[in-house]
């Protein structure tokens, strides 16, 4: 029986304290708290989605830039190597030609 | 057993290809040299580089024709401030790496001037590797090319591959031609 009494007491309708409705309405109308911004893009004041997009773009640019540097360096090295090789071949050929025409 | 023999045969056939690259790094030269050119381009880097050669430029197209059959280009060039700053005998360390398939096709020696040696690695009728050793009083250059080589096309590239024609070589060519 005790349980029954306790349940009845717990579920009994109570009038809200004074000013409860107003307080709830005020809190609903109030602007939501600004989401926390952390990380190196926080000072830019962007939302989390924009920050993720910018970070991804930066990462792609860095990775892509590194690849471009590698390609340019490889191309320059290749041209330098071809230049040296052909110069040495011609030098040897000219040397042989010079000796043979003495 | 048959599979083992087949695997050994395949490995034996593949060995000369991978063995064509020579070690051009001679100890002590880098420390003494005033200028160093060090180019190490294996097959993957060569293929990457050729993708960015211009199609419209006939010289770059010619360079691509040569390079696309190559598996590696390795250059070591050392320039010294003074004559006699390196021992010309040091290149023997490179020569000793050459196997029986390597043939010397050029050997020019002159006192006080450039000594040139050119070796070709032949597989049947096809040159599949080349070594150039050019020893001058103040400069030592070694070039090792791995892959199918067209020597005529290579020597015809001089000054035409986007690299400025060096005045030194120009003078030499004008003098000798």
Summary tags:
heterodimer; A: 102 residues; mainly alpha; 3 helices; 0% strand; rod-shaped; B: 177 residues; alpha+beta; six-stranded antiparallel beta sheet; 7 helices; 6 strands; globular; disordered C terminus
Give the topology, please.
The complex is a heterodimer of chains A (102) and B (177).
Chain A: H1 2-11, H2 20-29, H3 48-100
Chain B: H1 2-18, H2 29-32, E1 35-42, H3 43-50, H4 58-67, E2 70-79, H5 92-95, E3 102-108, E4 115-123, E5 126-136, E6 139-147, H6 151-155, H7 167-176
Quick description:
The complex is a heterodimer of chains A (102) and B (177). Chain A has helices at 2-11, 20-29, 48-100.
Tell me the major beta sheet of chain A: none
| Overall shape of chain B | globular
- Main β-sheet, spatial strand arrangement of chain B: 1-2-6-5-4-3
**Overall residue-averaged pLDDT value of chain B:** 80
**Major sheet details of chain B:** 6 strands, antiparallel
The 3D shape of chain A can be described as rod-shaped
What's the total count of β strands of chain A? 0
Rounded to an integer in angstroms, the radius of gyration calculated over CA atoms of chain A is 40 Å
Q: Helix content range of the residues of chain B, please?
A: 25-40%
Q: What would the average pLDDT of chain A be, to the nearest integer?
A: 76
Order of helices and strands of chain A: HHH
Tell me the strand percentage band of chain A.
under 5%
Q: Identify the quaternary structure here.
A: heterodimer
What is the terminal separation of chain A in angstroms? Answer: 131 Å
Largest interface: A-B, 28 and 46 residues
Regions with little confidence, pLDDT below 50 for 5+ residues of chain B: 162-177
How many runs of DSSP E, i.e. beta strands of chain B? 6
Strand proportion of chain B, as a percent range, falls in 25-35%
């Amino acid at each position: 029986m005790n349980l029954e009494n306790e349940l009845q007491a717990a579920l009994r309708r109570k009038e809200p304290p004074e000013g409860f409705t107003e307080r709830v309405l005020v809190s609903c109308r109030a602007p939501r708290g600004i989401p926390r911004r952390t990380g190196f893009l926080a000072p830019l004041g962007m939302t989390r989605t924009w920050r993720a997009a910018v970070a991804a773009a930066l990462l792609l640019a860095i990775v892509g830039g590194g690849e471009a540097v590698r390609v340019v360096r490889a191309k320059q090295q290749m041209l330098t190597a071809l230049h040296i090789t052909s110069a040495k071949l011609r030098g040897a050929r000219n040397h042989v030609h010079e000796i043979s025409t003495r | 057993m048959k599979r083992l023999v087949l695997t050994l045969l395949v490995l034996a056939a593949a060995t000369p290809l991978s063995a064509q690259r020579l070690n051009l790094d001679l100890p002590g030269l880098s420390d003494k040299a005033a200028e160093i050119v060090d180019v190490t381009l294996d097959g993957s880097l060569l293929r990457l580089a050729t993708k960015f050669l211009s199609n419209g430029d006939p010289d770059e197209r010619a360079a691509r024709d040569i390079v696309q059959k190559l598996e590696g280009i390795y250059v070591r060039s050392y320039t010294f401030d003074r004559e006699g700053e390196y021992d010309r005998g040091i290149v023997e360390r490179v020569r000793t790496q050459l196997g029986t398939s390597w043939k010397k096709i050029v050997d020019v020696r002159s006192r006080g001037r450039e000594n040139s040696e050119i070796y070709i690695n032949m597989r049947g009728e096809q040159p599949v590797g080349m070594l150039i050793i050019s020893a001058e009083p103040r400069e030592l250059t070694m070039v090792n090319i791995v892959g199918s080589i067209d020597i005529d096309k290579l020597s015809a590239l001089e000054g035409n591959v986007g690299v400025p024609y060096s005045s030194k070589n120009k003078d030499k060519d004008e003098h000798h031609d």
